[in-house]
Amino acid sequence: MLLHIDSSADTTADSVTRQLTEAFARTWHTAHGNSADHRHRDLSAAPVPPITPAYTTLGRRVEREGFVPPAKVPALTESAAEQREWGLTLPYITELLAADTLLLGVPMYNFAVPATLKAWIDRVTFPGALTDPDTGESLLRHTRVIAVMARGGGYGPGTPREHFDFQTPYLKAYFGSLGVPPENLHLVAAELTRVDVLPQLAGLEELAADSLARARATLTALAAA
User: Fold this and answer.
1) What's the CA gap between 28 and 22, in Å, rounded?
2) pTM (two decimals)
3) What is the pLDDT of residues 49-70, one digit of tens each?
4) What's the CA gap between 150 and 26, in Å, rounded?
């Protein structure tokens, strides 16, 4: 199953990440058949509710019990608020665990990931839910993650603003901590995407076009694999 999540606040006409994830999905369907299971979440159109004190209270209680599979969490709830939080959370967890490939559209907002994506991350990363209770192994160890990143400026290795990129290290640290092996995590970035509107980027049009073309080619190969 392909779980396709977009987090850009822009429409597809203005969003590079939406255009690229859409292209990936089309190629993926060509490779896997149009009947293949493809689920799309638009976090801008349907935001994930931010976690609440009831979520964190329930999470701490679950942590004290050790590795608790999702099926046993309801028995540990102690209030209607906790039941509501778990009811909101479980569908996102179930959807993620069902995915063979997780496709994320991740524009850079203020040097990091969008708040809409962070809300999804905070909710889906419920204590123990992504861990095998019998072995302690990550349930995401076989999941392929493709993060499609777009940056208005240039943040790649060797650029003056390389140290402003908190997007790449965050995604690497987050998915690495969940047990996604490095070979299954693909971070694909298109840079200088605002070259057409920012005067300070004038003259970098060719570099921007090359970066976008490389991102498209990489994603096409990943989708077809």
Assistant:
1) 10
2) 0.95
3) 999 999 999 999 999 998 789 9
4) 19
